[in-house]
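One record is set out below.
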Amino acid sequence: MQLSLIPDDREDRLLSIHRRLRRQYGPQGPHVLLDPVSQLVMGLIGGKTRGDISTTVFCALKGRFRDWESLRDAPVQEIRHLIAPVTFAEVKARRLKSALQMVTASQGALTLDLLKPMSVSASLNWLEQLPGVGRKTAATVLNFSTLRKPALVIDTHHLRVTRRLGLIRQRAGTVEAFEQLSPLLPQQWGAPNVDSHHQLIKRHGQHQCPARWPTCHGCCLADLCDTYRATRRI
């Protein structure tokens, strides 16, 4: 096996990126921390849907059902009707009901308390056995809820920006990105720091580095960006 002579500077670059984005956008939060089951519900309805829409639908569910057990026991068609504004409502309604049923069958109650003492990797593995729960949704349950575990959430903005920066492979998916980026985070970072990092990258992707027309001129990360350097050589 041959060793690469190219130094891996991604850990230092990630920290520099974080510092620059914090100067650019300021500290992030504070955010409302939902209980884990509520965050699971939010995650299951929110995929491929604008945040304001998924939040409105989540509030509608909270207003309709006295607790999540009532949602679990409701007919799928009623759930589908209530979550109709989100994308793929038919599929999400079935998965939402099934996921809540599976949690109850496993724990004897609708609770995710079993995750509290578990490691991040073990918690992710457990959550990803539930219908409709991929790496992003599982990470939000761990990081955005009162569990407050240091699991990095990778959304489409995070994926796009870190690909362009050269921190991950250009074709890396969510799971691969999580596995490549998580070891680069400073070991002393707790869940709030990891959350802040996600929010900063996401905000940069929304405002400076969107999918179609990134604004490279004047970008605070230009000299750290593989994509920008490559286009300058063309």
User: Anything to note?
Assistant: The two ends are 34 Å apart (CA to CA). The chain has a mean pLDDT of 95. The chain is about 55% helix and 0% strand. The longest helix spans residues 89-107.
